[in-house]
């Protein structure tokens, strides 16, 4: 189990580093682009396209962190009135539904990404291969499915998110 904690720790660190770095980079790129456009009347023509594609990656990989910290928006009125045992069972079912949805989304988005790759489609301004942008959906969906699995495993072990956080797993 020690190996699992170590892998999760560094995997989470990598995700958070990518998310934070992407947010910082896109913010600075847009700031520079605005300054270039209004002060020098010469914008960076590819900046908005790159920011758009990076935001897609940011959203899907950020979704993985949100799943890990059980932060997705939920209607939990019914869950709050359930007994602890029934709530745990309902949470397990919701985790299983989350895993199933993410795996189906990963599968079909992978097929679409592969089609774009085979077609050789490129972006208009940067002429970047579009499969790189499309790849955010299957990658992020797979990461979210893994996180739902971690949450489910934690529920079977009997610990909550707060207990996992205190033990170093979150």
Give an overview of the whole structure.
This protein is mostly helical. The protein is 79% helix and 0% strand. Helix 1 runs antiparallel to helix 2, helix 2 (47-68) runs parallel beside helix 6 (136-157) and helix 4 runs antiparallel to helix 6 (136-157). The chain is built from seven helices and no strands. The mean pLDDT is 89.
Which percent range fits the helix content? Answer: over 70%
Main sheet makeup: none
Number of helices: 7
Shape: elongated
Work out the number of β strands.
0
* Radius of gyration, whole Å: 20 Å
Strand content: under 5%
Structural class: mainly alpha
Uncertain runs: none
Distance between the termini: 14 Å
Secondary-structure element series: HHHHHHH
Give the integer mean of the pLDDT values.
89
Features:
170 residues; mainly alpha; 79% helix; 0% strand
List the helices and strands and how they pair.
Elements: H1 2-40, H2 47-68, H3 77-81, H4 84-119, H5 131-134, H6 136-157, H7 161-167
Gist of the model:
This protein has 170 residues and is an all-alpha fold. It is built from seven helices and no strands.
